[in-house]
Amino acid sequence: MRQPLFAALAASCLAACAAKPVPEPAANARYSFWRPAPVVDAPDPAKVVQEAPAEAWRPVDPSNLLVIELKEGGRVVIELAPDFAPVHIANVRAFAKAGWWNGAAIYRVQDNYVSQWGNGDAKTELPAGVVRQPPAEYHRDLAGLQVRPLGFPDSYAPMVGHANGWPVGYDPEQGRAWLTHCYGYVGVGRDLAPDTGTGGELYAVIGHAPRHLDLNIAVIGRVVEGMALLSARPRGTEALGFYKEPTQHIAIARARLAADIPAAERPAFEAMRSDSLAFSQFVTGRANRGGDFFQRPVGGVDLCNAQVPVRKIGG
Amino acid sequence: MRQPLFAALAASCLAACAAKPVPEPAANARYSFWRPAPVVDAPDPAKVVQEAPAEAWRPVDPSNLLVIELKEGGRVVIELAPDFAPVHIANVRAFAKAGWWNGAAIYRVQDNYVSQWGNGDAKTELPAGVVRQPPAEYHRDLAGLQVRPLGFPDSYAPMVGHANGWPVGYDPEQGRAWLTHCYGYVGVGRDLAPDTGTGGELYAVIGHAPRHLDLNIAVIGRVVEGMALLSARPRGTEALGFYKEPTQHIAIARARLAADIPAAERPAFEAMRSDSLAFSQFVTGRANRGGDFFQRPVGGVDLCNAQVPVRKIGG
Questions:
Q1: Strand (E) or helix (H) holding B186
Q2: Which residue among A171, A188, B102, B256 is buried most deeply as judged by most CB within 10 Å?
Q3: pTM of structure
Q4: Which of A7, A23, A33 lies nearest to residue B293, judging by beta carbons?
């Protein structure tokens, strides 16, 4: 069975939902009036990235890079975030090592939402080492993460910020943190039950950040190269953007970890450290665009518009 | 000259910027801790739209519909918002009546940003009735708008909500309101000076809402049909996503106001009234997704993920 990201939202949420622990809406639904405070002469974010010193960057481990080559040419490279969904990411690595996606396809492209790919129902036996029912790794302990607060309010989370070069929502009272569904971020397709997503079916966000998926799906990383190979595609005409005909599928030639590609051929990336001074300057600049075009800096930015700079290094 | 949406951000913002009146950053940059308050058993937003009564909808005036037919087939329909940028929209109507875009093209598609179209440098004489240097209609008086507050914090504006079926940022203290750059929203391309955009060059947002453009560009409406004809396109390889070769341009056959199309052939739309009960239920549902798939309602939604429902009516 294909794993639709969404099932049809049939009826309303009954007994099962009511049993879930959710905070009382009463006292905490209010927030105080916030006024953005624009900063004139803020740093130019592009210039900050260009001039950031070497120590502002962390290399991406080759075992955290999934390299997906398309049959038509071109490749999509995904940086994995094992600190956030370790079991799912161990699965992804095992799938890659087993050649699971060789011959798989992009079979769903839904406008302003996601591109999704995988093996669908082509294979029923999972490779050795893949956990068939991983835990719902939708959040992790806040403890152990060094979070830089974004500094602006968010519509979805009590607090947002960045940790080790990743965007996070977090809740200091509950002690939780989670990766967010920003443009280009990659999650694990699943069926209705939370333990049905192995990591074999993946999707990338190609529209406005669907942050309502946060805390409901395992986010495992982000596209760092080849984004347009996922976004600039005909939209599927079936429900949820599935392609109607298999002939519309976009074939994947093979997918490997960079660690399994000979060192001379493998791509390499580095991400800006979110605890660096450069990153703080970058966020200030994104929140206060200046230069000759902008008439008025806004004084705020949302988490998904302050995307962590990632760049290719080496050949 | 083509009008790039962005000029290269050359250096930092100097004397000219410093002279602009911006609020003091000191006292107001703080905001209180906000906790989303999830609602269990919230309405299913799709069902709300389906079942909304007739009085929850307002018809779109045919003079507020710009119908752009592509040479390859298909059409993009844009609802204009004359309450927000009246001079620019009078220009758009004059351009349409003069056949200005007949033979024009989509010449820029930048990933996670915008698709842009127009006439570029093909014509230098403007049609009769077009104001060459319209005022910077980047905001309007809050007075006269009936705003429904969204009810959740925003990263860019003191307050956000909806007025007459349009998403707005607003500032009660300054008495201003403005349309926001959400997915599918249409703005006026301009050069560096604010009075250089006539409305002849337009763009639509095809990625995560670039809200930093709010208050810096005239937003004139939104795409209500044919969005994928703008978003599902090869990305331009030149700076800012411009296509390298004219052969890559996507030709526009003609663009007319629906009011100038024979009544039997013209498309018709209606938008949900933002002061309706149905719209409040819709927003609550978008902020608290339930059903069989979601494990946890979030309890919040951002302005651009609570897109006003618009639907086609009639033939």
A1: strand B185-188
A2: A188
A3: 0.90
A4: A7
